[in-house]
Write a structure and sequence with these properties.
With 173 residues, this protein is mainly alpha-helical. 73% of the residues lie in helices and 4% in strands. It is built from 7 helices and 2 strands, in the order αααβαααβα. Strands 1-2 form a two-stranded antiparallel sheet. Helix 1 packs antiparallel against helix 5, helix 2 packs parallel to helix 5 and helix 3 packs antiparallel against helix 7.
């Protein structure tokens, strides 16, 4: 597919923002539906399917562990989503965003691959901003002050993006 990098990042941002908006409106399946459609197109087009499937699974597992840690340690008080409402765990739309992020690493976000300081810095700066935007939309509720939330989310996201980058480099080689 010509211009796959453009499709990769644009589709990621579309289902990211739609997921946050839809969750705030309690339309929980709209974001995941767009994500799955994007993932299907992604895997039809790419050549290195096993490498990307491995990274997809890594990001999914990391997402489950991190997001549920944020819930259990009281950083995130509430998520809008069926899984949170019934089971107190991170909703599907959030976990699919982790997969989507992983699927950008070999394409539209390849510029950070192997740049470990940059990946930590980007995670530290933009990770909390993502959570704050979801908080403003009403799709999640942060329990702590903005300063405490930013520091905890920033350090956590910086380290997680760094970890995913290290794993991605090993998968990419």
């Amino acid at each position: 597919m010509p211009n796959f990098k453009i499709f990769n990042i644009v589709s990621f941002y579309i289902y990211w923002w739609v997921s946050i908006w839809a969750a705030s409106e309690e339309k929980y399946f709209i974001g995941p539906l767009l994500a799955v459609i994007s993932f299907i197109i992604h895997f039809v087009v790419i050549e290195e399917k096993m490498k990307e499937l491995y990274l997809l699974l890594v990001c999914f597992i990391i997402g489950i562990l991190l997001e549920n840690s944020f819930i259990n340690f009281g950083i995130i008080e509430e998520y809008k989503g069926i899984l949170f409402e019934f089971y107190g765990i991170s909703p599907l739309w959030v976990l699919l965003l982790w997969i989507g992020f992983g699927l950008t690493l070999f394409h539209s976000s390849i510029f950070i691959l192997g740049k470990f300081k940059l990946s930590f810095l980007l995670g530290f700066i933009f990770g909390p901003i993502i959570y704050f935007s979801a908080h403003k939309f009403g799709s999640l509720t942060l329990k702590l002050s903005y300063l405490h939330s930013y520091l905890i989310l920033g350090i956590s996201m910086g380290l997680i993006v760094l970890l995913i980058n290290i794993i991605a480099v090993k998968v990419y080689d």
